[in-house]
Specification:
By secondary structure, this protein is an alpha+beta fold. It contains 31 helices and 17 strands. The strands form 6 sheets. Strands 3, 4, 5, 6, 7, 8 and 9 form a 7-stranded antiparallel β-sheet that branches. A two-stranded antiparallel sheet has the order 1-11.
Length: 881
């Protein structure tokens, strides 16, 4: 980076940008000897004293040198790796263009001419807002002859609320923000949105980004009562989390280790550009990161727990307490009264337990529940389920009606069945069908839509005498962990000959309750004397009434932003990464490759996160500003100065313009870590404003334009394409913040199931940043255009080209509907020249004569909506030059 090459004697005598490295015959005047003797070189790994003196004597004897030193290719990075070094000095009066032109000149290249006004406003507007400019905005900018017209444009765009939505979405890619848990169950997180709104608000307010990073790690500590700071810790729990409980000690530890690994990986890659998680099982094979470093960071996050936390203002909290306080006090008093009665009767319950339980039939069972009764003539048999053991839906696999030893409730015998409720499954109409109840199989289950009362009616092929009904939800007994749960607890069995007059022949009366709490209440009521029983029931009624009152009081806002508790044990270095093979305890601390901190083993939980936050944003840490400046550059030009935005280590790409990267990092710090001034400086550069036109001779030297001899054209991201379609159709809903909308229908049967929408109502016409981003779930159009599913960080979006993209954009019901709205807008706003307005809205320009003629022909043959659909499918619509 400094131009110093020590492979030959000539290179050492010439030196780098700071002059010769050695002066033969004079070690005291040789910078190389000076630094080696004082121990500052090699960085972090000084030579033994004997080697230092040997080097000095060699120089004093004239530095004899025979031949060239064979350059040895690095196998890994050391502490002298480029990204770990302090930021280089900024040249006085330097500009972005000077650094770029210097690199271009070395390759015999030069920048392209400046782009035209229409191209510039379209590029800048999409870049900062992710939306197309309006025809009025394009016309106004094209006609503005003031010298600072372009600067005024940038200032206006940076002040738009849409800026935070656009750049907040970029940051959410980097930090793996999702609104479901992932893993097997993948349930939604309904209150994850406050963190998303915090990100957008932080960008729009141009909050210094070092402060944003600190709030991501320790917002609860820094909040000072401000919930819009406290929610910043949503970063820590923005990743996936396994919600399947596990009593196995190894599995439980592994689940926790996976949570912490996600936090370590997200923090290190997003803020530091390092793959620290590669040191989980051993020292990093390529970067100077010790295994101990990994567990020092794990100790930092050891007290972070996935879950929701109240994020209310003091005023909101007081308002809730004023309403809820009296109700909670009354509840506590009633609870005390009920417990006193229970304790008073405890002796009698214990003494009479077996005798009381013996009066009742066994509780309903998941494997088999039977009800026998005197034989009854029936054509119809009905099981009415009034309540379940938990209040949830009681799925059943089979219902049987017995006439003698024959099950007459079989479809194969001519029986029919109808349940009053069946859960829908759009992707599989048979998934939860009530027909499973009479198919004679025990591997398919009927699920009702909810836990409300439900009836199952079996129609027999002919009237017969029946004397027994049975049912099950897990006959084989092999699915208790997965399908155990709600069991019909309060039910009736009824028969009828004509479907009009019904007779009850059996019920749950006389059976023990399934739930232990209900069973204990039954025992209690059996031993209480009459007056005491009435007192207990009255207290129960008051308790239920108070609970309803409390539930009706609006609770303070909550967000999925994590909870924090002091770790019960220290973090341990895990040998080979095995959660069952613990080594020595490891205190919270920073990476050893850079000067940092180490806390006591029992340091307070909040102190650990705050210390890491301050270390990451310390002015002496060169990684954070380099990584952040590179990310900003990446989103402006489509590629970072370092092409691997989250990996500045040995396996990452080397910077194409190292001096420029350090310049930008220094400028970021000089701007007080505010991004908007950095955006403006980049966008005011000639490099950004140049044309994207292709030049064959330049492309032969630099085919990807990495040296920026032209502005690299690029395709819009999936969200920008969708938002642009809504914008030109006139249907974009600009409502900001709050709970998001869904592009899927969501159901839960232990695990979550997502069914893509086929019809899109007005509630889905907001910007795509507000759609609930469930992990491993992609809508048809967004997914085809490479929108990530947030299961992992996505610091650099993959851009693919496939036939499915064209088909999705041509045939998707969303686009077809919006093309019709687009046509309607043209007829309303420009009935005399719909083609002209269409081109202005979609492309920001007037149509050429040939285009206008072709458009009129298409409209005459297929209609205006078909023409609008064609525009929305064109390359010019989805690409920015």
């Amino acid at each position: 980076m400094g131009g110093l090459v020590l492979e030959t004697r000539a290179g050492a005598l010439k030196g780098g940008t700071k002059g010769p490295a050695i002066v033969p015959g004079n070690s005291a005047a040789s910078p190389l000897a000076k630094r080696v003797l004082e121990g500052t070189m090699p960085v972090g790994n000084p030579l033994p004293s004997s080697d230092r003196q040997l080097l000095a004597r060699w120089i004093d004897t004239g530095a004899p040198w025979s031949g060239a030193i064979a350059a040895v290719e690095r196998k890994r990075a050391g502490k002298d790796w480029w990204s770990l070094q302090p930021l280089g000095p900024v040249e006085a009066g330097a500009t972005i263009d000077q650094y770029l032109r210097r690199a271009l000149s070395a390759k015999g290249l030069k920048m392209s001419v400046e782009a035209d006004r229409r191209t510039l406003i379209r590029r800048a507007t999409f870049d900062l807002l992710g939306l197309p400019p309006s025809p009025m905005e394009v016309a106004a900018f094209a006609a503005d002859t003031r010298p600072d017209a372009y600067e005024r444009l940038i200032d206006r765009l940076l002040m738009s609320p849409a800026y935070g939505e656009r750049w907040g979405r970029h940051w959410m890619d980097v930090i793996r923000f999702g609104e479901s848990h992932g893993y097997e169950q993948n349930h939604l997180r309904p209150n994850a949105w406050p963190f998303r709104d915090y990100i957008i608000r932080s960008f729009n307010r141009d909050k210094p980004f070092d402060r944003v990073l600190q709030e991501h790690l320790a917002g609860d500590v820094l909040a000072d009562g401000d919930p819009w700071v406290s929610v910043g810790t949503g970063f820590l729990v923005a990743g996936p989390h396994d919600t399947v409980g596990n009593q196995n000690e190894m599995a439980r530890r592994q689940q926790r280790a996976d949570d912490l690994d996600d936090m370590i990986n997200a923090t290190a890659s997003a803020f530091l550009g390092l793959t620290v998680n590669c040191a989980k099982c051993h020292d990093h094979k390529f970067d100077p990161i010790a295994q101990t470093d990994y567990y020092r960071m794990q100790a930092v996050f050891a007290g972070v727990i996935h879950g929701e936390r109240e994020v209310a203002t003091e005023q909101e909290r007081r308002a809730y307490e004023q309403q809820a306080g009296p109700v909670e006090r009354d509840l506590a008093a009633v609870g005390k009264e009920l417990n006193a009665i229970r304790e008073e009767a405890a002796g009698a319950v214990k003494a009479q337990r077996e005798a009381i339980l013996a009066r009742y039939r066994p509780a309903p069972d998941a494997q088999l529940t039977e009800e026998a009764f005197p034989a009854q003539k029936a054509r119809l048999v009905r099981l009415a389920i009034d309540a379940t053991s938990t209040g949830g839906p009681a799925a059943l696999e089979e219902i049987e009606v017995w006439s003698g030893q024959t099950n007459v409730a079989l479809a194969s015998a001519g029986a029919k069945v109808r349940a009053s409720s069946v859960r829908r499954a759009d992707d599989d109409a048979e998934a939860y069908s009530d027909q499973h109840l009479i198919d004679g199989r025990f591997d398919r289950r009927w699920f009702p839509a909810d836990g409300k009362p439900v009836t199952i009616t079996v129609e027999l092929p002919a009237e017969v005498a029946v004397q027994r009904v049975s049912w099950s939800r897990d006959r084989a007994g092999g699915f208790q962990g997965r399908f155990g749960g709600p069991i019909p607890n309060v039910y009736r069995v009824e028969v009828s000959g004509d479907g009009t007059v019904w007779k009850q022949v059996a019920s749950s009366k006389g059976r023990l309750p399934v739930a232990e709490a209900q069973r204990e209440r039954l025992l209690l009521m059996a031993v209480l004397p009459g007056e005491k029983a009435r007192q207990f029931e009255a207290a129960e009624a008051r308790e239920k009434s108070l609970q309803k009152q409390l539930a009706a009081i609006e609770k303070p806002p909550a967000g999925y932003v994590g909870r924090f508790e002091q770790p019960k044990e220290p973090a341990y270095l895990l040998k080979r990464g095995s959660v069952m093979d613990r080594g020595e305890p490891v205190p919270a601390g920073s990476l050893s490759a850079l000067p940092g901190f180490e806390l006591d083993l029992n340091a307070p939980e909040s102190e650990r996160r705050l210390a890491l936050a301050r270390w990451i944003t310390d002015a002496r840490n060169p990684l954070t500003p380099r990584v952040l400046a590179n990310r900003v550059w990446h989103y402006h030009f489509g590629r970072g100065i370092v092409g691997t935005p989250s990996d500045f280590g040995f396996n990452g790409e080397r910077p194409t313009h190292p001096e420029l990267l350090d310049y930008l990092a220094s400028r970021l710090i000089a701007y007080g870590w505010r991004l908007k001034p950095l955006h403006k400086e980049i966008m005011m550069s000639a490099a950004y404003r140049q044309s994207g036109s292709y030049d064959e001779s330049s492309a032969k030297v630099d085919s990807e334009a990495r040296l920026l001899w032209r502005f690299p054209p690029r395709r819009l991201e999936a969200e920008a394409i969708r938002d642009s379609i809504l914008t030109v159709s006139g249907k974009l809903n600009r409502t900001m913040g709050g709970p998001g909308f869904r592009l899927f229908r969501y159901t839960v049967d232990n695990v979550a199931t997502y069914y893509p929408l086929e019809e899109f109502g007005e509630d889905t016409w907001r910007r795509a940043v507000y759609q609930q981003a469930a992990r491993s779930v992609r809508s048809e159009m967004l997914g085809q255009y490479d929108c990530p599913d947030s299961s992992l960080p996505e610091p650099k979006r993959v851009v693919t080209t496939s036939p499915l993209q064209a088909l999705a954009l041509l045939n998707n019901s969303f686009l077809i509907g919006q093309a019709k709205h687009f046509a309607g807008r043209l007829l309303r706003e420009s009935p005399d020249d719909p083609v002209g307005l269409a081109f202005q809205l979609a492309y920001g320009r007037e149509p050429e004569a040939g285009e206008r003629a072709a458009a009129k022909t298409l409209i005459a043959k297929h209609g205006l909506a078909a023409f609008c659909r064609a525009l929305l499918n064109s390359n010019e619509f989805v690409y920015v030059m």
